[in-house]
Specification:
Helix 2 packs across helix 4 (53-75). 46% of the residues lie in helices and 18% in strands. The longest helix has 23 residues, at 53-75. With 291 residues, it is of the alpha/beta class. The N and C termini lie far apart (47 Å).
């Protein structure tokens, strides 16, 4: 109850205030959570090949901004949220693919404001987004409200959800997912990510094999002082060729390129290199859906 009230209170604040408070919150977490601090420093240094204190300071603040903007994104009216997207670079690529009758697989890394990307897509055409329920039960109704608006639908990260994604793509509609999310045991393989083995989902590579599917990376860069967001859409730079391991590695390399376009806004504190937890395999339906 208290968490829901806090979310509703924060959603009423201007976005510029939330980003200012978020910068402070990011530093509080960084200072008092030693595990998070270690991961952020190590992951960032690994990605760019050196320790960069200035870049790290920006990343700490941006992580806090990402957290505090979520109530605003989930609970504000859709038109207000989308009004904060000041430009959409490359969106014409998705429009062209849709006009040609293709299903679209949107890949959104933990970069910038990843909550707003699916909402923007849903304003143009239906999209189904893969999700995992939040750890805190109190957040579930808020998340479901925020992610089930307009033409945005959700699919759970289980076998039924994957079947829904395959069906959606085969119907020439759009699907969205976080390709750098750590999957459960049985749903991934070890593949390099910034030079270190990371447990990588195979689902994205399998869905890319569904007949007549186009894949795009999409992310929203957070602009300074709450001015809004700059949305970017880009096709893969590497072809989806070879076996499953090769395709997963290619996706990871593409994600690296996207992240390095705006490295201060990636969630470097995310436990990307953790060992997977046991879970039910959720990507076999995608393999069955290949044509």
């Amino acid at each position: 109850m208290l968490l829901a009230l806090l979310f509703r209170f924060l959603s009423r604040l201007p976005l510029s205030w939330l980003h200012a408070l978020g910068g402070l919150a990011g530093w509080l977490i960084y200072c008092f959570d030693s595990g998070y601090r270690r991961r952020l420093k190590e992951n960032l240094a690994l990605a760019i090949g050196r320790d960069d204190p200035a870049l790290r300071r920006r990343a700490v603040a941006e992580a806090g901004r990402q957290a505090l903007e979520v109530p605003w994104l989930w609970l504000r009216p859709v038109d207000q949220v989308l009004g904060k997207i000041v430009r959409a670079e490359g969106w014409e690529l998705a429009d062209k693919a849709r006009s040609e009758g293709a299903g679209i697989l949107f890949m959104t890394p933990h970069l910038g404001c990843f909550e707003i990307t699916a909402l923007y897509c849903a304003a143009h055409a239906p999209i189904t987004v893969l999700y995992r329920p939040p750890r805190k039960a109190a957040l579930r109704p808020l998340m479901e409200y925020g992610r089930n608006r307009g033409d945005m639908r959700t699919a759970p990260a289980d076998l039924s959800g994957v079947r829904k994604l395959v069906k959606t793509l085969r119907a020439s509609e759009a699907v969205g997912m976080l390709p750098d999310q750590v999957p459960a045991l049985g749903e991934g393989i070890w593949a390099p990510f910034f030079g270190r083995p990371a447990w990588t989902m195979t689902l994205a590579a399998r869905l890319a094999e569904v007949k007549n599917v186009r894949m795009f990376y999409i992310w929203a860069e957070r602009l300074p002082r709450g001015q809004g967001y700059s949305l970017h859409v880009a096709p893969p730079q590497e072809a989806m060729e070879g076996d499953l391991e090769a395709r997963c590695a290619a996706i990871n390399r593409d994600i690296e390129r996207v992240i390095l376009r705006c490295p201060e806004q990636y969630l470097w504190g995310y436990h990307r290199y953790k060992k997977p937890k046991a879970g039910k395999p959720a990507d076999r339906a995608a393999e069955d859906g290949r044509a």
